[in-house]
């Protein structure tokens, strides 16, 4: 399970439940799965479009294999032939010359997934990590590069640092490889696009209640109500109180997401939506390193304080307009305002100290030959209050026309944005010294003192124009080409850190190009090239010595194929790629950086998804990452980039057993990873197995998910700070979900 208790949003949830009348069984515990409804032959839109393609295409976006679904079946639409990746709206996967993975809500429901981080473990090219200076929110590495600022919601940047839930998502879509032409700054390894649920023309609803061992409860609901033949309202909500197998850790989270859709089926459609979420989570900075590895202690050990907390409030409001002038010309506009607030008082292992009072060298992975019972952990604080605001607008025009025998689909657009970021840091002294082997569970001592630290205030503005053309040269050949011109300007003020003021203005032209050969409807082969850029002030945080540097530049080459097999019941993908950061920032001396670095990642992606037989579904992937810091001046040359396993694979498969029963089993595997670029601290590889058993009868269903079947010790994420910490994954956990739907 993932994370809010009913307390902060009980009223909102009760309203949603009241609207549900009888509610329908949907997501097993995520509250985000719109499963097939008996009596309705349409699957819930597996891809909710971005502003570029919400209404007219939704009815056509279905799984590749039309399936007549019975009430007890779980043959849901894992398989997709379209995705909404960026401002270009809904596109056929065959026409996208890059690797794309679509995680459908039905897939996540069968896995019992409710957190975005858990959903992304289905993509073997993704690893989880911590942000600079601490772990807040979803911090992700994709193809060996940080994607913390490359998380999107309905095609627009979702810049806040918070723990995302899938309760209002119809799918999660991952586009791999540099894509600044589509998304602007960032996107070195790719982007993650969350696709929200949208109101539909039919009435339906669902309610799910989940309980877990160890202690945990979650309630979720999804209600859709047509208001007329052209209007509908939908509301999703969840609340949860979750405890981890690690004794002290717990999360109390909740959220509500209403949406109103007007003008469905007409030439002009407006969609208004909001996402309101509150998290009160227990931060986890994991285990400290010892002799270059996670300390060999009980993974239940907690090196923090029992009254630590991370409180987050998220409010996102969207207004989307789509107007169709004709079948060949349409206009799309999306306006978003987002507010993200974080109040974090977080404590973690800062250093390891011997009984004699000697501090071990954390830069060398805390080497020692002393027994564990003679070592102690000095706690350190990671406290901050963050206020993050973002206002953005994206407008585009899509035109379809011919030049002689050549067909064009041309998308031109403008993006404008304004961000404001305030971060007040503080530090605490007088924190306790804990036993490494058997740490006591203590609240903050009364003698601890708090000292205000640096207050950073940042502003950034974005302005961009772009154009992308899909050129159909003949029935078998396509060319995809695009250009984007970005202007990014940022100002940053500090109260105690130096420099006291930093300013940066960046202009960059991103390109994207690819050829696609489709000999028939079931084969597609492509070769593509793309670029991206990373300004040093992109995150509006302190970057001493980097503020005057030009942006880092990235380029990608990829060749691959996409095949529909078994009469379109299975989809197979394969790709070879190289991503290179050609002028990576590298440190010459303390506070002095230059753009003389080079980081290169070569790799292989394989994916297989769909129906092997009528009742047997499969989702599988494998990624090989040959990653290397080719050039650096800070001693990391020749090393492997942080948090980048050479091999990673994922598997999930379900079977329909008779009319009512279904079962599933899956595995996630990763090889060794390093906590930081210096490769001093490493976390071992692991394989974790999960299982599922479900029973469906009429509108009711019950589902049991078992996570970490073998109760395996493994580390789910790595944090580079303080020598390199490793956060343990959960132990064996049982989760039971009861659902009702209409």
UniProtKB/TrEMBL annotation:
Subcellular location, record wording: Cell outer membrane
A molecular function (GO) held by this record is: siderophore uptake transmembrane transporter activity
What PROSITE patterns would the database entry show?
A: TONB_DEPENDENT_REC_3 (PS52016)
User: Is Secreted found in the keyword set?
Assistant: no
Domain TonB-dependent receptor plug, chain residue ranges per copy: 93-191
Q: Which domain of life is it from?
A: Bacteria
What membrane topology is annotated for this entry? Multi-pass membrane protein
Keywords, A to Z, come to:
Cell outer membrane, Membrane, Receptor, Signal, TonB box, Transmembrane, Transmembrane beta strand, Transport
Q: Does the keyword Transmembrane apply?
A: yes
Q: What is this protein called?
A: TonB-dependent siderophore receptor
Organism of origin: Metallibacterium scheffleri
